């Protein structure tokens, strides 16, 4: 992250030129959402959480290991809905269990929307989805102090495309530890 | 030229560094039937210039949708002054107006002499000499476009204004976001902020000196205000939850915004002097995208309190909000025209999302665009055009449409997504 004075002149121009030359979007991340396996957590968030885990000396990352962060970290929503679909209740329960077993661990619930509709309104929709997950965790007994919500609206799509399949993969809440 | 300021100088420096390849380019997609025919003769001496002044003027006028410049091939003579003009020639070409001129290089300074002629009245309407350095020639051309546009239409020209916009390159965890400013015709773009986290909702201060925007650079959304000439900025808000949709009051002293610190997004107004915050709305819904009426007495905003997004108007006098959009199931992100008697907004129909205009006296709504992924309308300071974001394939591009929908153009970028255009105020 960097910001630049508006009147910085030639240096800015040259760095911009370099940047423009380097910024073609060669490889997209479409593959990361294959099978909706829930690997779409925010990059920095998941990276730091892995560091923390190894620091605590826990072992393994397979599902079912109660000391590991549940592998499935993304749940999906129907169009214009913030209700938890039954097939994702087990995912939420696994995270609830993990958080209760690790009261010093925090999680950020990242709420996302598909691209349809205006951007600021979609921030609200993403937040509603994350709040629905937060509420579920709360009912399961997770302390509210462990949970934070950040809505990205439609700003961080997991996949591109103007089709229902793409939209479905973008309407999501990601557990970012 | 006296209108130059610090950041224009910076932009011109960039131009010299060869940034043209990264610029947005204009594609006229629809011309108006009512466009006024005008002949713009290439200025004598103008061919040798790095910026061909006549071409820029011609492009400006055509882009406005109000003018149809005569094709260069149709010119039967190339006068450079009114003394050399045979009006009958131009009457035969059905050209209502004629622009002639000459450019002289006088020791590094350019002296541009131009005249606007009424072909049917056989009369000189405008004659002026503009002096300019080589780096200011684009600005000078836009200035000339402004003068011609105003002389003929009676409406102040907005060709010397700027647009701010956001770009995004990549997908998933590897998106790079930038905030940019360019001339209204897409040239001279300059990046003023870049981040690996989303940047949203740029909003010009009424004096054109600052931009407010939303940046997620800390991992959470915050509203920032950045001074465009110094680059200095302040993080204005960092409340829990959404910090979004900044909107300047017409006097520049307050910023309306959407904050969800109390549970769901509500409209607030912050006094920029005292930083005091006043909450305007109280609903269980999403209330966002505030916009001040030009007279500062009311704000419009988007709310889904009725079950789907619609636009409401909040009166600062009696502190009441009333729904003002009733056509269709999705109306959002309203923006006033400069007179305050109409709003432009995003509306959804069976085909998708379009830009629409609603007359506030009759409540009649007109859809202006036939593309289906339109959002983020922003109105030119003279009210004649609306710039917006749309899609070509899976790429975000900018489009613009005249206030009556009769003319439109696109501003494609060479790479990445371009979105959230914000048209500057007049920058004088």
From TrEMBL, chain A:
<feature type="region of interest" description="Disordered">
    <location>
        <begin position="26"/>
        <end position="67"/>
    </location>
</feature>
<dbReference type="InterPro" id="IPR006664">
    <property type="entry name" value="OMP_bac"/>
</dbReference>
<dbReference type="InterPro" id="IPR050330">
    <property type="entry name" value="Bact_OuterMem_StrucFunc"/>
</dbReference>
<dbReference type="InterPro" id="IPR036737">
    <property type="entry name" value="OmpA-like_sf"/>
</dbReference>
<keyword id="KW-0564">Palmitate</keyword>
<dbReference type="InterPro" id="IPR006690">
    <property type="entry name" value="OMPA-like_CS"/>
</dbReference>
<dbReference type="InterPro" id="IPR039001">
    <property type="entry name" value="Pal"/>
</dbReference>
<keyword id="KW-0472">Membrane</keyword>
<keyword id="KW-0732">Signal</keyword>
<keyword id="KW-0131">Cell cycle</keyword>
<comment type="subunit">
    <text>The Tol-Pal system is composed of five core proteins: the inner membrane proteins TolA, TolQ and TolR, the periplasmic protein TolB and the outer membrane protein Pal. They form a network linking the inner and outer membranes and the peptidoglycan layer.</text>
</comment>
<comment type="function">
    <text>Part of the Tol-Pal system, which plays a role in outer membrane invagination during cell division and is important for maintaining outer membrane integrity.</text>
</comment>
<dbReference type="InterPro" id="IPR006665">
    <property type="entry name" value="OmpA-like"/>
</dbReference>
<dbReference type="InterPro" id="IPR014169">
    <property type="entry name" value="Pal_lipo_C"/>
</dbReference>
<keyword id="KW-0132">Cell division</keyword>
<keyword id="KW-0998">Cell outer membrane</keyword>
<dbReference type="GO" id="GO:0051301">
    <property type="term" value="P:cell division"/>
</dbReference>
<keyword id="KW-0449">Lipoprotein</keyword>
<dbReference type="Pfam" id="PF00691">
    <property type="entry name" value="OmpA"/>
</dbReference>
<feature type="domain" description="OmpA-like">
    <location>
        <begin position="64"/>
        <end position="177"/>
    </location>
</feature>
<comment type="similarity">
    <text>Belongs to the Pal lipoprotein family.</text>
</comment>
<protein>
    <recommendedName>
        <fullName>Peptidoglycan-associated lipoprotein</fullName>
    </recommendedName>
</protein>
From TrEMBL, chain B:
<dbReference type="GO" id="GO:0051301">
    <property type="term" value="P:cell division"/>
</dbReference>
<comment type="similarity">
    <text>Belongs to the TolB family.</text>
</comment>
<dbReference type="GO" id="GO:0017038">
    <property type="term" value="P:protein import"/>
</dbReference>
<feature type="signal peptide">
    <location>
        <begin position="1"/>
        <end position="22"/>
    </location>
</feature>
<protein>
    <recommendedName>
        <fullName>Tol-Pal system protein TolB</fullName>
    </recommendedName>
</protein>
<dbReference type="Pfam" id="PF07676">
    <property type="entry name" value="PD40"/>
</dbReference>
<keyword id="KW-0574">Periplasm</keyword>
<keyword id="KW-0131">Cell cycle</keyword>
<comment type="function">
    <text>Part of the Tol-Pal system, which plays a role in outer membrane invagination during cell division and is important for maintaining outer membrane integrity.</text>
</comment>
<feature type="domain" description="TolB N-terminal">
    <location>
        <begin position="24"/>
        <end position="124"/>
    </location>
</feature>
<keyword id="KW-0732">Signal</keyword>
<dbReference type="InterPro" id="IPR011659">
    <property type="entry name" value="WD40"/>
</dbReference>
<dbReference type="Pfam" id="PF04052">
    <property type="entry name" value="TolB_N"/>
</dbReference>
<comment type="subunit">
    <text>The Tol-Pal system is composed of five core proteins: the inner membrane proteins TolA, TolQ and TolR, the periplasmic protein TolB and the outer membrane protein Pal. They form a network linking the inner and outer membranes and the peptidoglycan layer.</text>
</comment>
<dbReference type="InterPro" id="IPR014167">
    <property type="entry name" value="Tol-Pal_TolB"/>
</dbReference>
<dbReference type="InterPro" id="IPR011042">
    <property type="entry name" value="6-blade_b-propeller_TolB-like"/>
</dbReference>
<dbReference type="GO" id="GO:0042597">
    <property type="term" value="C:periplasmic space"/>
</dbReference>
<keyword id="KW-0132">Cell division</keyword>
<dbReference type="InterPro" id="IPR007195">
    <property type="entry name" value="TolB_N"/>
</dbReference>
<feature type="region of interest" description="Disordered">
    <location>
        <begin position="406"/>
        <end position="428"/>
    </location>
</feature>
């Amino acid at each position: 992250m960097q910001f630049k004075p508006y009147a910085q002149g030639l240096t800015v121009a040259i760095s911009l030129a370099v940047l423009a030359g380097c910024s073609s979007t060669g490889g997209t991340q479409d593959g990361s959402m294959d099978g909706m396996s829930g690997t779409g957590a925010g990059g920095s968030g998941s990276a730091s959480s892995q560091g923390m885990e190894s620091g605590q000396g826990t072992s393994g990352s397979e599902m079912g290991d109660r000391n590991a962060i549940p592998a499935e970290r993304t749940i999906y929503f129907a169009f214009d809905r913030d209700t938890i679909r039954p097939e994702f209740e087990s995912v939420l329960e696994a995270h609830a269990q993990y958080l209760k077993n690790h009261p010093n661990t925090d999680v950020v619930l990242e709420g996302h929307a598909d691209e349809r509709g205006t951007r600021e309104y979609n921030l609200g929709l993403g937040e509603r989805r994350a709040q629905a997950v937060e509420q579920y965790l709360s009912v399961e007994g997770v302390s509210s102090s462990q949970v934070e919500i950040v809505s990205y609206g439609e700003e961080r799509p997991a996949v591109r495309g103007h089709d229902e399949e793409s939209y479905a993969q973008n309407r999501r809440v990601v557990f970012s530890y | 030229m006296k209108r130059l300021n610090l950041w224009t100088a910076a932009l011109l420096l960039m131009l010299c560094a060869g940034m043209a390849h990264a610029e947005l380019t204009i594609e006229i997609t629809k011309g108006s039937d009512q466009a006024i025919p005008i002949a713009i003769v290439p200025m004598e001496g103008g061919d040798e210039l790095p910026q061909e002044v006549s071409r820029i003027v011609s492009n400006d006028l055509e882009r406005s949708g109000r003018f149809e410049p005569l094709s260069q091939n149709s010119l039967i003579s190339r006068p450079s002054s009114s003394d050399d003009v045979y009006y009958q020639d131009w009457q035969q070409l059905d050209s209502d107006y004629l622009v002639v001129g000459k450019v002289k290089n006088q020791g590094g300074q350019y002296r541009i002499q131009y005249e606007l002629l009424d072909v049917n009245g056989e009369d000189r309407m405008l004659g002026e000499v503009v002096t300019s350095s080589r780096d200011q020639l684009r600005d000078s051309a836009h200035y000339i476009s402004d003068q011609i546009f105003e002389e003929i239409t009676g409406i102040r020209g907005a060709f010397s204004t700027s647009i701010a916009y956001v770009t995004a390159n990549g997908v998933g965890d590897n998106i790079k976001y930038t905030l940019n400013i360019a001339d209204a015709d897409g040239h001279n773009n300059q990046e003023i902020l870049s981040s690996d986290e989303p940047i949203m909702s740029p909003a010009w201060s009424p004096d054109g000196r600052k931009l407010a925007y939303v940046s997620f650079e800390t991992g959470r959304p915050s509203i920032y205000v950045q001074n465009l000439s110094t680059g200095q900025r302040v993080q204005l808000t960092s409340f829990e939850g959404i910090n979004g949709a900044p909107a300047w009051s017409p006097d520049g002293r307050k910023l309306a915004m959407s904050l969800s610190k109390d549970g769901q997004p509500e409209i607030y107004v912050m006094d920029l002097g005292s930083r005091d915050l006043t909450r305007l709305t109280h609903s269980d819904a999403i209330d966002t995208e505030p916009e001040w009426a030009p007279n500062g007495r009311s704000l419009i905003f988007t709310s889904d309190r009725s079950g789907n997004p619609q636009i409401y108007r909040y009166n600062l006098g009696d502190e009441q909000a009333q729904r003002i959009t009733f056509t269709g199931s999705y109306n959002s992100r309203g923006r006033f025209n400069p007179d305050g008697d109409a709003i432009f907004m995003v509306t959804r129909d069976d085909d998708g999302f379009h830009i629409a205009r609603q007359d506030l006296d009759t409540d009649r709504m007109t859809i202006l665009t036939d593309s289906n992924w339109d959002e983020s309308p922003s109105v030119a300071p003279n009210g004649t055009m609306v710039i917006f974001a749309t899609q070509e394939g899976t790429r975000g591009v900018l489009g613009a449409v005249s206030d009556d929908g009769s003319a439109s153009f696109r501003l494609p970028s060479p790479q990445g997504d371009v979105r959230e255009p914000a048209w500057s105020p007049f920058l004088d």
